Amino acid sequence: MKFKSILLLILLFGMFLLRGQQTQVDFLTADIAIIPDSTGSIEATASYELMANEKARSFYLDAQKMNFSSVLLNGKKAKYEYDGKRIEIQKKIKPGKKYRLSISYNVQPQQAVYFIGWNDGLADNNQIWTQGQGKYTSHWAPSLDDMNDKMIFDLSITFDKAYEVIANGKLEDVAAKGEVKEWKYSMDAPMSSYLLAFSIGDYDSKTMRSTSGTPIQNFYYRGDEDTYEPSYRYTKELFDFLEKEIGMPYPWKNYKQVPVRDFLYAGMENTGLTIFSDSFMVDSLAYADKNYVEVNAHEMAHQWFGNLVTEIDGNHHWLHEGFATYYALLAEGSVLGEENMYWKLYDKAKALQKASEAGQGQALTDPKASSLTFYDKGAWALVMLSDLVGEEAFKTGTLNFLKTHQFSNATIADYLKAISEASRKDISTFESVWLAGTSFPMEQARQYLSNNSTTIRDFLAMQHEIRTSNAPNERIMQKYWALNPSKQLRERGIRLYFKSLSNEFIGEILRTGDLKMRQAVVQSTTRIPAELQHDYERLLEDPSHLTVEQALYLLWVQVPGKRDEYLRMTEGIVGMPDRNVQLMWLLLASLTRDYTDEALRQAYRNELANYTSPEHSFEVRQRAFLLLAEIQRMNDQNFKDLINATVHPQYAFRSFARDLLDTYLKDPDKKLRIRRLADGLKPSELRYITKKLTIE
Ligand SMILES: [Zn+2]
Questions:
Q1: d(Cα 532, Cα 543) in Å, to the nearest integer?
Q2: DSSP symbol at 590
């Protein structure tokens, strides 16, 4: 007992010491003026207003690899120490008094700011954009990596007047100064540093207003106006829905959305300024296969869950991603129909069940959990919590939680407390199963879906009958199709049981089914029966780029006699933002002897090969690499582009490039060739390959 209390004292004292260090001073405002240079460096001055609640001997800001030209405290030169990561100002700070710190610096950010397209000689793809979360804003602005000290940020940016400059907050002024303009943005509420952001590029925009009057400014690439409506479809509806469902007005002055090239993720919810991957900028045809609706709603929901109320640390990440995913599902359901929401929940549950059964289940309270856990299990946990305590108590509790912790930080316990108080229900079992538990409670999820969606109930019954009955699968499917007109039920049935479907039935689906059902057929097909050839040929004119690409490939392989006809029918189609139809077409045309002469075939091959170059988005490059690798036609330039791709900031693409390179390095001849090519490359591109080539 005594031992325990001494231990407790030591612990408490330790925490006190730690706290003393951590709380340091309170930063109130940050006024940051930057001049980015297209070569990748930034010249800047940042001033901060700060105050301490208790005496302090020093205080710090995180600042990565910066060169300081002046550091002033209240206008006087300040004593400081700098270790390349943190600048620590050595000065006794009196409690209750305000201080002004001013830092001038330049920096060549290693991460968190990305300069895209400036080296390729093309003017219209030049961009500079930021990613703070996980990459740390302190790489370009002295700030706090810790999420718990929120400041009111004002960002002003001076840049070439030909470009549009976008940042968090309200645009106060744009002043032309010769060849440059200074863009001044200001905010009036505090946020964590990781949410500070800007984007520079060749943009146009349109502004709409939510029903409550908030301006929503949506950007698109100048000249690509046809992508505006399909890409931003339902934006106002989603915004209005979230304000109503959450029950609290949007907490910031305005909302902006900016697509950028080669983005690291689908989207990032910087305060009032979502930056997202331009692969979501689709025309009305591509919309059917890929759209921004869910990501749009997800980043919007973060404006409350993450930005207004922020986790104290990664242990509470459910409060960000689980909530954003959950509210996005509801919002999307409000515009696309509830069935759509239940099917998405069903797909998420299946993925979680699979991981769980493979022994990879994770607790939502595990700070190292995967996206699948934080996003999808996180959303499921909220679905079940709302079901448990009732919608009204859920809404009241969630709203109280937001109000109590707005513009501040919170924990999972804070949230559960708010729900307990609003519902007066014991939620300890929920907590242990859904938050602390590692396995996914599939049975509960299945039960919930069966209770709420007749379509999924029928689908599960159909699956059960197919598994247990002796009747032919097709007859059972037809029975359920007659019972339930759901397109989702049909599409999934086609994919699951395609092998047992008769040609007659498949032909009927191709003639009378909707776009997704035809797509399910063509993506499940490996052989085209002669009697269905005509039906498959009609897919070359399908209003889905994914269907056209797959149909072209299948027909080209299966019906060699009509290759030239198929190519003529699809010439000139670009397809999805990753040029899926065009690249497939170039590959097949370059391989088709009857279609054209050798010179033109070579020209097609060259055109395809050029798409691995860094002047294209990584999505296009990856497709081109895959196709060229498939036919073993990688030329020297493709290998150079592949080496360049091994240091690309986008993780999935970089990994893809490294894996592909690995397979080539196993071949001694290719290895020699790659070693020779590496000689002419830039040191930054060689960071990875040099290690690879010298290891063995
Ligand atoms: Zn998110």
A1: 19
A2: H
CA atoms within 13 A on the CB side of 225: 4
Nearest-10 Cα torsion for 645, 647, 648, 651: 110
* pTM assigned to the model: 0.94
What sign results for the dihedral spanned by CA atoms 648, 653, 655, 661? Answer: negative
How far apart (Å, rounded) are the C-alpha atoms in residues 257 and 296?
A: 9
Compute CA distances 186 → 174, 267, 307, 462, whole Å: 12, 23, 16, 57
Span from the CA of 320 to the centroid of ligand 1 (angstroms): 7
Tell me, rounded to whole angstroms, the distance of Cα 532 from its chain centroid: 40
Cα–ligand 1 centroid distance for 305 (angstroms): 9
Yes or no: is domain 309-452 CATH 1.10.390.10?
yes
CA of 9 relative to ligand 1 center, distance in Å: 40
**What is the per-residue burial (b if ≥16 Cβ within 10 Å, else e) of 283-316?**
bebbbbbebbbbbbbbbbbbbbbbbbbbbbeeeb
Is the pLDDT score of 22 beyond 60?
no
- For residue 321, the CA-to-ligand 1 centroid distance in Å is 5
CA of 367 to the centre of ligand 1 (A): 15
Fold type of domain 26-293: Immunoglobulin-like (2.60.40)
Structure token digits, residue 430: 């929920």
The band of 679, judged by pLDDT with boundaries at 50, 70 and 90, is confident
Q: Is the distance from CB of 176 to CB of 161 less than 8 angstroms?
A: yes
Q: How far apart are CA 364 and CA 656, in angstroms?
A: 29
- What tens digit of pLDDT does each residue of 27-44 get? 999 999 999 999 999 999
**Alpha-carbon distance 675 to 690, whole Å?**
9
Amino acid (1-letter code) at residue 112: A
Ligand 1 centre from 374 Cα, in Å?
Answer: 9
Query: In angstroms, what is the span from residue 164 Cα to ligand 1's centroid?
Result: 26
Distance from residue 492's CA to the centre of ligand 1 (Å): 27
Distance 264 CA to ligand 1 centre (A): 13
Distance from the CA of 314 to the center of ligand 1, in angstroms?
13
Q: What is the pLDDT of residue 24?
A: 80
End-to-end CA distance of the chain: 59
User: Taking 80 as the threshold, does the pLDDT of residue 13 lie above it?
Assistant: no
Structure token digits, residue 488: 């989702």
Domain map of the chain by residue range? 26-293, 309-452, 611-696
Q: Where are the alpha helices (DSSP H) in 484-597?
A: 487-497, 503-512, 515-524, 533-538, 545-558, 563-570, 580-591
Helix or strand run (H / E) with residue 644: helix 636-645
Residue 171 in this model has a pLDDT that exceeds 70: yes
Give residue 360 CA to ligand 1 midpoint distance, Å.
Answer: 22
Give residue 7's pLDDT.
Answer: 45
Distance 216 CA to ligand 1 centre (A): 19
pLDDT at residue 183, rounded to an integer: 98
Does the fold of domain 309-452 match that of domain 26-293?
A: no
Q: Lowest-confidence range among 10-24, 90-104, 231-245?
A: 10-24
Residues 6+ apart with CB under 8 A from 65: 84, 107, 108, 110, 139
Tell how far the Cα of 268 is from the centroid of ligand 1, in angstroms: 7
- Bridge partners (DSSP) of residue 267 are 276
pLDDT of residue 172: 98
Q: What totals of helices (H) and strands (E) does the chain contain, helices first?
A: 27, 22
- pLDDT tens string 53-84: 899 999 999 999 999 999 999 999 999 999 99
